[in-house]
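Team,

Forwarding the record for the chain on the shared tracking sheet. I've put the sequence and predicted structure together so nobody has to dig through attachments.
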Amino acid sequence: MKTRLGKLETQFFSYAQMRGVNTIRAGDLAASVLRLAPEQEQKLLSRLSRGGLIARVKNGVYLVPPRLPLGGAWTPTDAEVMIALMEEKQGRYQICGPNAFNLYGFDDQVPNRVYAYNNRVSGDRRVGAVDLTLIKVDDARLGDTEEREFGGQAKAVYASRTRSLVDAVYDWSRFEGIPRGFEWISRELESGRVIAERLVECALRFGDVGTIRRVGALFERLGVAESLVRKLESALKPTSSPIPWIPTRPKRGKASTRWGVVFNERA
């Protein structure tokens, strides 16, 4: 980490702060008052990125802090990273999975990376000190979100509370969401923080057949209004191939022909 700035570095930060920019792209400094040649610019940006003073989003694109923190160490927020990355890709995103589970109090474990559904790119990345797992999905799978602002920082788009419960069941293998998601849904319904009607709508819109089967079976167990249970049932076709209630356990137990689910809690 670089803590002492040279003349050119000081000029760079003065320029960025004077202009109020938080993103610098290759070529910006050639057209600025600094008038750097491409090679000078590339060396300066690389040096600052290696020193932890700016964060590389992708080749030729860097995030710049609004002001240098004490000690010279800086890392962008989750929101700043996602906004910058999606602006470059001209895409949409929503932070999901473990980050949303923690935000809404389902799980007290603080994730060490940011999980985000988006419509542009898949894979793991690192921007500054922020580790990302980017999950590319169709446009139709994005939605049911809310914006959250933390400490006056940039607003981040998160999956809503209801959507996050559906994601726990739908994306169970990635997020380790079953059987924990069943407990979360039961608790959220009982507390009134989530209403059953919204959960049905969300499951039908963003879930798959397995999600609808499991949520329907859970609702029936919880005694949710039969009219809502039937909405889920009407989206399903009869099946002779039941799925396990808990996918990671052997498919042994009592079967529900209505939902095509084998209740294997004790298997």
